Amino acid sequence: MSFSGDVKKELSSIPLNDCCLKAELFSAVRMRADINRVPGGAVISFSTTQNTAARRIIFLLKKIYDVRADLKIKSKKDVDEKSFYRISFTDEGEAILRDLGIVAPDGNMSDAGYRFENDCCKASILRGAFLARGSINDPQASDYHLEITAPDEGEARMLLEILKEISIEAKTVKRPKGIVVYIKKGEQIADFLKYVGASNALFAFEDIRIKKDLSNYVNRIMNCDVANEQKAIATAAKQLEHIEFLEKHYGFVNLTPRLIDAIILRTHYPDDSLSQLSEKSVETVNRYISKSGLSHCFRDIERLVEKIKKE
């Protein structure tokens, strides 16, 4: 099973209070249901390839309203094809829609937002939306990405409002199947998993994220060290070229003592960085020369070389 499937499996088994179960069903209906109004009632149906989502919807209908749903399964024909589940019910369909606030008192479909104020119920709305039309990338195999495809702007706005309340920054993009509400930051995906109650998935996600971040940090440090070492080697090679030029075309006798000391250090330790030369200065030239001092010395030598070449 995929990481996304593991998250949905965990979410579909969370025991909740009746108010939260109703909020979850409200979200599932808003996000996934096809509603057909017929004389004297309504037919509500769900279509999904997710076994966990199908079982959760049937459980919610039975638990809250004691409604029996008709389940039809189209079995997969090959390994790559997923089984298709279609759930439908007509008993008390209209009454359920009114009770959930999806149908207004005047009998028309309501375009109002969610009416659940408790934090636990808001978490259930996000949980129902994710179970119905959500997915999350495997954090070990790819970039961090969690998304929920809302069927229209009303549902997308509902999700964005709740996510904003819990300080999760989500963005939207329009696609043929609907409006995708997505989260890209690892920390905020972790906050989402925590908020909807996916504790096991949260621990697994955070474990992978910490290891990836540590690995990336180590790689950056190693790359930085390699780059610094290569830079130091190139700088030292250039300094040795300047020293050789001065020896042939100018002579060391005309140089100041501080430049002579810098030359002695560099010729004794041709591969060392300026920091390493500074540490060895006392034992080599009998006085301490700072890294900054050495840098100034080699800069003066470079200027002298350029001046001699011009003349």
Structural class: alpha+beta
Please describe the biggest sheet, giving its number of strands, its sense, and whether it closes into a barrel.
Answer: 4 strands, antiparallel
Proportion of residues in helical segments: 55-70%
Number of strands: 8
**Shape annotation:** rod-shaped
Low-confidence stretches: none
- H/I helix tally: 12
End-to-end gap: 76 Å
Rg of Cα set: 34 Å
Instruction: Order the strands across the largest sheet as they lie in space.
Output: 1-2-4-3
> If you average the pLDDT, what whole number results?
85
H-E order: HHEEHEEHHEEHEEHHHHHH
Strand content: 5-15%
Walk me through this protein's architecture:
- This protein has 311 residues and is an alpha+beta fold.
- The protein has a four-stranded antiparallel sheet, with helices on one face. Strands 5-6-8-7 form a four-stranded antiparallel sheet.
- The chain is rod-shaped.
- The model has no long low-confidence stretch (mean pLDDT 85).
TL;DR?
This protein has 311 residues and is of the alpha+beta class.
Descriptive labels:
311 residues; rod-shaped; 4-stranded antiparallel sheet; alpha+beta; single chain
Task: Draw up the topology in text.
Blueprint: H1 3-11, H2 18-32, E1 34-38, E2 41-48, H3 51-65, E3 70-74, E4 84-89, H4 93-100, H5 119-133, E5 134-136, E6 146-150, H6 153-165, E7 171-175, E8 178-183, H7 186-196, H8 199-249, H9 257-268, H10 274-279, H11 281-285, H12 291-310
Helix pairs in contact: 2-3, 2-5, 7-8, 8-12, 9-12
